[in-house]
Amino acid sequence: MAADMIPPPAARGFLAMHGWGDAQILPLAGDASFRRYFRVVDAGRTAVLMDAPPPHEDPKPFIDIARWLHQRGFAAPAIHALDLAEGLVLIEDFGDDRMREAIDADPANAEPLYRAAVDILIGLHRQPQSALPPYDRAVLHREANLLTEWYCPAVGIAPDQAGYTAAWDAVFAVALADVPVTVLRDYHAENLMLLGDGALGLLDFQDALAGHPAYDLVSLLQDARRDVEPEIERAMLAHYCAATGADAAFDAAYHVLGAQRNAKIIGIFTRLWQRDGKPRYPTLCPRVWRYLEQDLAHPALAPVAAWFAAQLPASHRGDPMMVAGQ
Fold it and tell me: What is the Cα–Cα distance from 37 to 31, expressed in whole angstroms?
């Protein structure tokens, strides 16, 4: 077993305390954070052990949002046991069938599965938001700045930071919700699980904030990890708008938040390479750049598009490892 997927020392005692003392602990997955996941198997029953080690991770937001979602009929994992001091949480096992692989195996699944995922958002946005911090202008700026903090230096560009901040500031007004909703923030095909009853299970929502309903929709339809067909994106955006009465202002917010999110992701993927030694993430950047350029073409993004045209020419857009080595 790889060293980074060896169960934490406290895992065995934690499981024994909660009736899983004889269980096997099998590596399941890590992610782009310090969190790790293990499948716990014992006599025909399974669960997932989340290792969210303090001080790097705090599992309490995940627990709180999972319970809030579960109480409202959304398929979030049930919490079986927890030890906040050790950062250990035993949760319901949603299995291995992700939306992403179901579509990759049969593209005919794309339309119904994306529609089901959009319907979850429609239902979620009809709920009064949980007691969450706001997805406000300060957070939007901080996230967008990840591109200038990490990507630009990696590809040899000293950016006009003041101009970048001013450009975003000029467009963020449309991305601030009059009535905030619960924004899960990492809502995409690799975090949606196919459950036995036909429902989609929700994962990776511990960073939820109260913000604009367009954010999770663009997270789903401009997926950094897989190509979403343009016709699917258009159809699902139209489906959401028809169901909710969203108008042209929503369309502008969708593209502003899409551009902001994609700029953030390019910065994060570059940081994962340079700081954390994870070189697979920059290879995803060309796809994210395509989404970003698509969003920048919207009239609502004119100031930001002008900054990108002046500061980051096409020759410097792509996989930062490749661009840096040109």
Answer: 9
Q: Which two tokens stand for residue 173?
A: 């007004």
- Start-to-end CA distance of the chain, whole Å, equals 37
* Token digits of residue 199: 């429902």
Question: Dihedral sign, CA of 124, 186, 38, 88?
Answer: negative
> What are the DSSP E strand ranges found in 187-315?
192-194, 200-202, 209-211
How far lies 222's CA from each of 21, 57, 172, 214, 225, in Å?
43, 27, 19, 12, 9
Query: In Å, what is the CA distance from 144 to each residue of 81, 87, 254?
Result: 36, 29, 15
- Tens of pLDDT, residue by residue over 46-85, are 999 999 988 888 999 999 999 999 999 999 999 999 999 9
Distance CA(213)–CA(236), nearest Å, equals: 14
Coil, strand or helix: which one is 36?
A: strand
Q: Which of 296, 273, 297 is nearest to 285 (CA)?
A: 273
Q: Is the pTM of this model over 0.90?
A: yes
pLDDT digits (tens, 9 = 90+) for 6-28: 898 999 999 999 999 999 999 98
Three-class SS state of 296: helix
What gap in Å lies between CA 128 and CA 179, rounded to an integer?
A: 9
Residue 228 is given by DSSP the state P
